[in-house]
Specification:
Layout (H helix, E strand, L loop, with lengths): L2 H8 L2 E2 L5 E2 L3 E3 L15 H11 L5 E3 L3 E2 L19 H11 L5 E7 L14 E2 L16 E2 L2 H20 L4 E6 L4 H6 L14 H4 L1 H14 L5 E6 L10 H14 L3 E5 L25 H8 L6 E4 L5 H9 L5 E4 L2 H4 L3 H6 L16 H20 L10 H17 L6
Parallel strand pairs: 3-4, 3-13, 4-6, 5-6, 6-9, 7-8, 9-10, 10-11, 11-12, 12-13
Antiparallel strand pairs: 1-2
């Protein structure tokens, strides 16, 4: 690797709010599923982030932290809707920041794809079931205007608690088919009120959440948004929609926009969505980043399939993006950023064999990498060549955790 590649990725980045990232590599969010059943943090979570805190990444973004304990994306999510675990949140942030990285909390609401507790009815922009088996058992309830006002306040409250707990910033999750993404999609948002009916009204909730969070944490703290480049579903949120939303977010004054794609129906973020077969296996969403860059100088983070240091450096040096997001590689090589910055190209195992059924393949990818997260928390080295038994054990563990989550202690 040339010195130019290393130097480019090691360059600092000042964000619009004034915060400075130490380099151009970020650990992107991955759902850790390591919290207690009541959503409080654990020593395992602290140990994991102490390891990633020494990874060399200039920015660490947590897995989704839930704004409402009645709505989880997976079992084992951290829940931050009140101050009951603020000491644990501080310990989490402190462990992550030991290596000098910025540490941001990703905040989220699942909407109709909530998996637990099972005795609660999920909510959505419109009462339309998910098309994914397992997530379509319960028909969601349509949110009222009053419900939406409460949700906006919950996002702001969680952001406030994150900052009180020592985090440096927050990322609002508006991708991958979760609630804010559902509001953006014409497939899931059939409303005809102030929150739907046309692209401008479908993006209103996201913009109101950004405004509320900014009003709570102030102008000098980073606010990021994670946004799909498109949903990879016919008739859903497309690249034209994404461009309009991204420019509206830039005008709203966010500090960093992370570009991703897909969701439960089409897990493009794992490289298994329809329409990706004939595309490069690296930088899945770079084409959209290029389109967006032509319209704005908003700092852009690109996540999805990035593996080659030279490619990463080129994307940054030519101005296409400002930050490189790495997720799954850091479950197998926890110090992946440091090794890239040292001039190496770490090798990674190939993913699990695919079945051809995309939702299942996405789940198997999750289980495969989640197994390595559990090894790291136990002080073990990630596996070099995990086999089918690794996926089976991880999938069983995740399924059992979902069953245990049926009732959340209040």
């Amino acid at each position: 690797m040339t010195d130019t590649v290393t130097t480019t990725l090691a360059t600092t980045l000042q964000l619009p709010c004034g915060a400075v990232l130490p380099n151009r590599i970020a650990k992107a969010a991955m759902s850790e599923q390591l919290a207690q059943r009541d959503g409080t943090t654990t020593d395992k979570l602290h140990r994991l982030y102490a390891v990633w805190g020494r990874s060399g990444a200039g920015l660490l973004i947590t897995g989704n932290v839930m704004i409402d304990r009645d709505a989880l994306t997976e079992p084992g999510n951290v829940i931050l809707d009140d101050a009951r675990d603020l000491d644990g949140i501080r310990a989490w942030a402190g462990a992550a920041k030991e290596g000098g990285a910025q540490v941001w909390m990703q905040i989220n609401h699942p909407g109709k794809v909530a998996v637990a507790p099972f005795d609660k009815r999920p909510v959505a922009p419109t009462a339309i079931r998910s098309t994914v088996p397992g997530y379509n058992i319960r028909k969601p309830r349509t949110l009222t205007a009053g419900d939406i006002d409460v949700l906006i306040g919950r996002f702001a409250r969680t952001a406030e608690l994150a900052m009180a707990g020592g985090f440096d910033g927050v990322q609002i999750h508006a991708a991958h088919g979760y609630l804010l993404s559902q509001f953006l999609s014409p497939l899931s948002n059939h409303r005809e009120d102030a929150w739907g009916g046309d692209p401008e009204r479908r993006m209103r909730l996201l913009l109101d959440v950004v405004s509320a969070v900014r009003g709570t944490i102030g102008s000098d703290q980073p606010i990021a948004v994670k946004l799909n480049s498109r949903d990879f579903t016919h008739g859903g949120f497309g690249t034209g929609d994404a461009l309009e939303v991204a420019l509206a977010l830039a005008a709203a004054g966010i500090d960093l926009l992370e570009i991703s794609g897909g969701g439960y129906e089409a897990p493009a973020m794992t490289g298994v969505a329809r329409g990706q077969e004939d595309r490069p296996h690296e930088a899945y969403f770079a084409e959209f980043a290029e389109q967006l860059r032509a319209h704005t100088d908003l700092p852009i983070m690109l996540t999805g399939g990035l593996r080659t240091p030279a490619h990463m450096s080129t994307l940054v040096s030519n101005g296409t993006v400002d930050v490189i997001g790495l997720g799954r590689p850091m479950t197998f090589v926890p110090n992946y950023p440091a090794r890239i910055l040292a001039g190496e190209r770490p090798t990674l195992p190939r993913g699990p064999r695919r079945t051809g059924y995309r939702p299942l393949d996405g789940y198997l990818e999750l289980a495969w990498h989640n197994a390595q997260i559990h090894r790291i928390t136990a002080g073990k080295t990630p596996q070099r060549h995990p086999g089918a038994h690794t996926i089976a054990r991880a999938a069983t563990r995740l399924t059992k955790a979902a069953a245990r989550q049926a009732t959340i202690p209040r």
